[in-house]
Amino acid sequence: MKFLRYILFPIVPIYFVVTWTRNILYDFGWKKSKSYKLPIICVGNLSVGGTGKSPMIEYLIRLLKTDFTLATLSRGYKRESSGFKLANNSDSAKSIGDEPFQFYNKFGQDILVSVDANRQHGIESLKDLNVKPEIILLDDAFQHRKVKAGFNILLTTYNNLYCFDMVLPTGNLREPRSGAKRANIIVVTKCPVSITEQEKERIVSKLKPTNKQLVFFSTISYSNKVFSIDKELEVSLLRHFTLVTGIANANPLVDYLKTKGLEFKHFNFKDHHVFTEKEVDDLSDFECIVTTEKDFMRLKSERKLQNKLYYLPIEISIDRAEVFNNLVLDYVKN
């Protein structure tokens, strides 16, 4: 795969010019972005996947859901439905996508969870509901310039900062690095717990934020327990289990489990992998399976796995959380 990316390097300048030109057209108003009166917060990235958008959306949900009527709007990647859809009790990962289904499973009683590939249409559909949202969280919409979000949170991972990357197909960036200037906040995600202030300063100097941008750093915190549909188990009690992942970057999870001295086999699939019947049959031969919460959304309906399938929840911690929270709340209120 890496070799193929290097072969495709001649396409990089073409991709760069096309995406740069598109941004210029929007920046100067030659292509129109639609603004809205209600607060719209966009969480996104410059690179393709794996920056921790879902944990950030969940962080914002926890911050805002008590005081506001809140909605999430996602594309619903690889879902079997189309158009606008508001999640309900009959939905699954197949009908709305794994990440929106994860939001609905956790917060469905407190928020509105919706999907629509056309973000403008999705926002208008939410505004037409009887119970209208006071805030909309746009999931993975940084490149959707047809909507002008009032507040943009840009994520980049500690081990793959966008400032050291290049655009597709050789690199991982969806657009040139200059697109980062649209962000109100930049969050460096998946940082080691031991990151020092000197290291943070070094990273900020490399990212070169504008005078109006603040940079924050977040770390992943794993639960001490894994959960099935109706059971829970201490991570320390896991013995000779099988790890199954279908996410962009499973390395932090693998490293965490290894630090616990656990022994396991690892089956690593591509991000948003749709498991075939044969793959489910093969997995059913194992006595205990641990997966991510996102993968659990796709696998939990498989009867062959229900008595052996567990997921490990994660949350994020943000440095200077009070400052971060106040920036979001100030935008929402003002």
TrEMBL record:
SUPFAM superfamilies, A to Z: P-loop containing nucleoside triphosphate hydrolases
Enzyme Commission number(s) of this protein: 2.7.1.130
Pathway(s) per entry: Glycolipid biosynthesis; lipid IV(A) biosynthesis; lipid IV(A) from (3R)-3-hydroxytetradecanoyl-[acyl-carrier-protein] and UDP-N-acetyl-alpha-D-glucosamine: step 6/6
The reaction(s) this protein catalyses: a lipid A disaccharide + ATP = a lipid IVA + ADP + H(+)
Keyword annotations of the record: ATP-binding, Kinase, Lipid A biosynthesis, Lipid biosynthesis, Lipid metabolism, Nucleotide-binding, Transferase
UniProt GO cellular component terms: plasma membrane
One GO biological process term: lipid A biosynthetic process
Enzyme class: transferase
Molecular-function GO terms, alphabetical: ATP binding; lipid-A 4'-kinase activity
UniProt cross-references to HAMAP family, sorted A to Z: LpxK
Similarity comment: family membership: Belongs to the LpxK family.
The protein's role, per its UniProt record: Transfers the gamma-phosphate of ATP to the 4'-position of a tetraacyldisaccharide 1-phosphate intermediate (termed DS-1-P) to form tetraacyldisaccharide 1,4'-bis-phosphate (lipid IVA).
Protein name: Tetraacyldisaccharide 4'-kinase
Native organism: Formosa maritima
Organism taxonomic ancestry: Bacteria, Pseudomonadati, Bacteroidota, Flavobacteriia, Flavobacteriales
